[in-house]
Design a protein that fits this description.
The structure is a single chain. The longest helix has about 50 residues. The protein has two domains: about 160 residues, Orthogonal Bundle (Cytochrome Bc1 Complex, Chain D, domain 2), CATH 1.10.760.10; about 160 residues, Cytochrome c-like domain (Cytochrome Bc1 Complex, Chain D, domain 2). By secondary structure, the chain is mostly helical. It has a two-stranded antiparallel ribbon with strand order 1-2. The chain is built from 16 helices and two strands.
């Protein structure tokens, strides 16, 4: 038999055999060599985790404040809150008689269509003048959370979107809103005229009420509220009569605003701490805030960047920011300020309107407000004072706790609409807890006499 040459195939098979043996050895060799490396890495991770745990358990110490931090701290001190600014658009803003009249109106459910809802139904004194609900509710369900009205006399804008530019203008909106109090200005004017005490208070402040006795000229109920039964009755009235009724309506709002100007936050533990620091009483300061609370204050002014928006003695810049708060599932993202500023400028009850008492109409805030793309999805910065009594948080009540709010700002997710101005913070769990502990030190009784915090006798 002729032997056919394999042209090196045998040699290659032999070589492959050797390669297979070598590969087998190579496969086995790294396992033995790598095991110590994995073990070292595992031990290192364990040591790091234990170290982190021990660090987190290490007691906090009171910060040694820098001069810059002391200046920031003083800027937040309620003792540096300036005097209440005048409201030239409201001639009775600081008249004690108007405050008394407005106090009675604020707690009177007769101002609603069904006689069940007063201003105080949503702005409850024992909840820091908020309502504890996700969104406000009266005759219907509101789109947004009910913000506290404490200290809003300092704000040039009202509502989450700033669609009102005065307290009196804001006070008018719920009175005729079908999902809030659902009333109408004709019925409200009749209420004032028909109640002896109200009539006396009104005429002392604003002069003679219009004579509403002619039912042909003055229907029982009427208001320019689109889509309501009141609208056609309002349109049937002559312009002069509509104007006289609207003046009564506006004056009701101005009296309520005079009362709301009395609602002010009081000094908190944080403020007592700053006072002790300012007077260089370190030993006293150490008994007012815990080390964790003081560390939370340092985070607030520094790493957590809260002070960029929550500044000044009321801890708000009264501006509008998009911070990427996610909408409630199933609800359209809130356009916020971009809609609010257009509504404010078109409002007949704004600073520039005929019902403003300011003869100069010096309305710089309204004239020069931002209206560009940067305010899409932006919402008003709330005050951080008295947060403990005003949960849930955010514009739709979608943030149930301060802890959840801390986690949101730490993550800084993309906004569903517009651009999130916030950036991820990189806070540890302990730092978030310390920041939350500091915020709790801002809780305090209101600096308002007790008789104003309950319904009048």
């Amino acid at each position: 038999m002729v032997k056919v040459p394999l042209h090196g195939v045998e040699d290659r098979l032999a070589e492959d055999s050797r390669s297979t043996d070598d590969a087998s050895r190579l496969t086995r060799w790294p396992v033995g060599r790598l095991f110590p490396i994995f073990a070292i890495i595992a031990i290192g991770l364990a040591v790091a985790l234990v170290g982190a745990a021990l660090f987190s358990l290490r007691p906090a110490v009171h910060p040694a404040w820098t001069d810059h931090e002391l200046q920031l701290m003083e800027s937040l001190w309620i003792a540096n809150l300036p005097p209440l600014p005048p409201d030239p658009s409201n001639a009775v803003a600081d008249d004690p008689r108007a405050a008394g009249f407005g106090h009675r109106l604020f707690f009177d459910p007769r101002l609603s269509d069904n006689g069940e809802f007063a201003c105080s139904s949503c702005h409850q004194p024992d909840r820091r003048f908020s309502d504890g609900r996700l969104t406000g509710a009266a005759l219907g369900e509101s789109k947004r959370n009910t913000p506290s009205i404490v200290g809003t006399a300092y704000s040039p804008w009202l509502y989450w979107d700033g669609r009102k530019d005065s307290q009196w203008s804001q006070a008018l909106s719920p009175l005729e809103d079908p999902i809030e109090q659902g009333g109408n200005r004709m019925a409200l004017a009749r209420l004032i005229a028909g109640d002896t005490e109200y009539r006396r208070a009104y005429t002392a402040l604003f002069g003679t009420l219009p004579d509403l006795s002619d039912a042909g000229r003055f229907p029982a109920e009427a208001a320019p509220v689109p889509g309501t039964p009141f609208e056609s009755a309002w349109n049937s009235m002559n312009p002069a009569d509509r104007e006289s009724v609207t003046r009564v309506f506006v004056n009701i709002g101005k009296a309520i605003a005079a009362y709301e100007r009395l609602l002010m936050p009081g000094p908190s533990r944080f403020d007592r701490y700053v006072e002790a620091i300012v007077h260089r009483d370190a030993s006293q300061a150490g008994t007012i805030l815990s080390a964790d609370e003081a560390t939370g204050l340092r985070l607030f002014m520094g790493k957590a960047r809260c002070i960029e928006c929550h500044n000044g003695p009321l801890l708000t810049n009264n501006e509008f920011h998009n911070t990427g708060i996610i909408s409630v599932p199933g609800k359209i993202p809130d356009r916020g300020r971009i809609d609010g500023i257009h509504m404010a400028r078109g409002d007949p009850f704004n600073c520039l309107g005929a019902y403003s008492d300011d003869p100069e109409k010096d309305c710089a805030e309204l004239r020069f407000a931002r209206t560009g793309a940067e305010v899409v999805g932006a919402l008003r910065t709330p005050s951080l004072r008295n947060l403990q009594g005003t949960a849930p948080y955010s514009h739709q009540g979608q943030t149930p706790s301060l802890g959840e709010m801390m986690r949101h700002y730490d993550r800084a997710p993309l906004a569903l609409i517009g651009h999130n101005e916030a950036k991820p913070l990189g806070l540890s769990r302990r730092e978030r807890a310390q920041l939350e502990a500091f915020l709790a030190t801002l809780d305090a009784p209101l600096a308002t006499a007790p008789q104003w915090l309950a319904a009048p006798p």
